[in-house]
Amino acid sequence: MTPPACDGQSQPLTTFFSQTSSNSQTLTTGYISNTAKSTSDTEMHEPKSKSSIAILGCGDVGSTLAYTLILNPICNEVILVDPKTALLEAQVRDLNDATYRGNTGTKVRAGTHKDAGQADIVVITAGAKQKPGESRLSLLSRNLHILRSIFSSMQPINPDTILLLVANPVDILTYFARKLSGLPESQVLGTGTSLDSARLRGVLAQKCEVAPNSIDAYVLGEHGDSQFIAWSSIHIGTTPLTLALPPTILTPQFRHEIAAHTRGAAAAIIASKGCTAYGIGNIAASICKYILYDIRCVRPISFYQPELGCSLSMPAVLGRKGVVRAMPVNLDEKEQEELKACAENLRGIIEGAESEWAAKEKLEEALRRDTLVPLEEGEKGEEKGEEKA
Ligand SMILES: NC(=O)C1=CN([C@@H]2O[C@H](COP(=O)(O)OP(=O)(O)OC[C@H]3O[C@@H](n4cnc5c(N)ncnc54)[C@H](O)[C@@H]3O)[C@@H](O)[C@H]2O)C=CC1
Ligand SMILES: CC(=O)C(=O)O
């Protein structure tokens, strides 16, 4: 079958920049090969035969993703894994009820972590979520613990599996998933700022009165408070934002309001409904499609940045091997500073988590030694004496 096109956007043309010095950039125009007929993300596709997507965690996000994959079938099988067995069974039954009308080729089943490790794509939604008013970073300790237990249960992992992290804080977990899985870094990605970028396109579309998919706009960096908008590369169609909007509208106040809206969107939704699920379900399903069909869409995605020492979102070409390549982006001086600050912030959190984990492991090791080491002769005598007493 013909692979579906990238988001149904009519422009297969991707504009990118190659940097010639710290402040001057050369504009290059690149074509992402896209011979597919233009179909939209919401259009039905035949599932790829013998392909499977495992979803770890079948709460709000995991089940919404599974439902999206049923409605837009791209794989044969969705495997759900969750330690809450009653919830898992109920979700599988409810989701399969949505398949019996015969309009999908995708089946849903319950599986183990070991089964999941053999899937083509493993999506990790397992973990705690924010309560109203809580930050994503407050989930780190709990969700890192879950992540570690997931990787010890999933072994041996299919060496071709692509890991897609969704659980928060997604950039930090993406960094650790790369270390824990032992998979090549191109195969470990996080949804990152894809959702923030969709929210940005949404609000800009309203302000500019154009369709969201005519806007090319990226939020980059952390899926969290240190994220930033790459204002200097926003285009509406082929028109730079600075040409598309008059300076009387594109004021610092306008930029500030848009950035605050984008950064605060999750908290605002969680305050009223306790979770966000539809947006991320749709984004994660699209990323799975780009991977399974080797579509080569360019998306802001969280992946390891060797020069920054952390995982964060930058534009990347997505295909069957995960991150096929990073796509250079033109950042102005302010944006470069924001990227630097964002990476420093994430590196600090990673270092804190690593030393907290090392201390925990030392303590566990000491406790194990304490219970396992046989008692010395003298100690045995003392123990007997204690018994007599
Ligand atoms: N990256 C993003 O843009 C977004 C990320 N999220 C994050 O996704 C995560 C999940 O959110 P929800 O689905 O709303 O939470 P939820 O609480 O509804 O579901 C989480 C599920 O994970 C399961 N789980 C726990 N340990 C597990 C393990 N070892 N293996 C498999 N499953 C396990 C739990 O039993 C639970 O059913 C949260 O961390 C949330 O912050 C949510 C929305 C957007
Ligand atoms: C929960 C979350 O990370 C989001 O909706 O952006």
Automatic annotation (TrEMBL):
Pathway note: Fermentation; pyruvate fermentation to lactate; (S)-lactate from pyruvate: step 1/1
Top EC class of this enzyme: oxidoreductase
Keyword Transport: no
CDD domains (alphabetical): LDH_like
Lactate/malate dehydrogenase N-terminal domain ranges (all copies): 53-190
Pfam families: Ldh_1_C, Ldh_1_N
Cellular component aspect of the GO annotation: cytoplasm
Residue intervals of the Lactate/malate dehydrogenase C-terminal domain: 193-355
SUPFAM superfamilies assigned: LDH C-terminal domain-like, NAD(P)-binding Rossmann-fold domains
Listed InterPro entries: L-lactate/malate_DH, L-lactate_DH, L-lactate_DH_AS, Lactate/malate_DH_C, Lactate/malate_DH_N, Lactate_DH/Glyco_Ohase_4_C, NAD(P)-bd_dom_sf
Reaction(s) this enzyme catalyzes, per UniProt: (S)-lactate + NAD(+) = pyruvate + NADH + H(+)
EC number: 1.1.1.27
GO molecular function: L-lactate dehydrogenase (NAD+) activity
One example of a Gene Ontology biological process annotation: lactate metabolic process
Keywords, in A-Z order: NAD, Oxidoreductase
Homology family: Belongs to the LDH/MDH superfamily. LDH family.
PANTHER family found in the cross-reference section: L-2-HYDROXYCARBOXYLATE DEHYDROGENASE (NAD(P)(+)), L-LACTATE DEHYDROGENASE
NCBIfam families: L-LDH-NAD
UniProt protein name: L-lactate dehydrogenase
Source organism: Sporormia fimetaria CBS 119925
